[in-house]
């Protein structure tokens, strides 16, 4: 019993081996489909054939809608981080908040990992090895806390949109959009910057006598960026270092 020889378009990717196997190098999504294997004994007119369905899984790719998002920590404010993923099967998207394992973690403290690419489809090998290296490096440097829908976070149906409710300064940092399917996993980061409106945190109201030599009024404010403190009296605004004959001021923060 012999093997039927199939003719394919001129390509180094398809190769019939001596044992009758069909080898496809650097398989692509366009190679997906039904392949026929036929065995024939010509002298006796005997023939048999089978069909095999080839399904090609496609490595996930991620498109981040905004790599850097700005938000303000107002009461009841919310912000959204979003990414879209492609691949086959459809990737499952999850989100994680990234925290450095140690603020003193130095790159030289990490072990050395070398990548060697052997003969074969370079595109596939490059992508596979780099993905392994990226995941390893990511796990070495960061503690990732998976985020789920609840009081603080809302995920839409396919996971592509993460809404953070009641945004605070502690929410600032890097968030990882993770897309995973049978072919592998891809991670992209989104940075969230949280700005805090100015707020006067301390004000010292003093009672002064009319002829006191020196009265100091204290006003402190917090915020991010750090707010500038200014003083005014009636229609006059005072500048830093200015010598004035007044003792009582009103303060405001800008």
UniProtKB/TrEMBL annotation:
This protein's GO CC annotations: axon; neuronal cell body; plasma membrane
A molecular-function term among this protein's GO annotations: axon guidance receptor activity
InterPro entries reported in the protein's UniProt record: Cell_Adh-Cytoskel_Orgn, Ig-like_dom, Ig-like_dom_sf, Ig-like_fold, Ig_I-set, Ig_sub, Ig_sub2
Residue ranges of domain Ig-like in the record: 60-193, 198-254
Gene Ontology biological process terms, A to Z: homophilic cell adhesion via plasma membrane adhesion molecules; synapse organization
Name of the molecule in the record: Neural cell adhesion molecule 1
Species: Takifugu flavidus (sansaifugu)
Taxon lineage: Eukaryota, Metazoa, Chordata, Craniata, Vertebrata
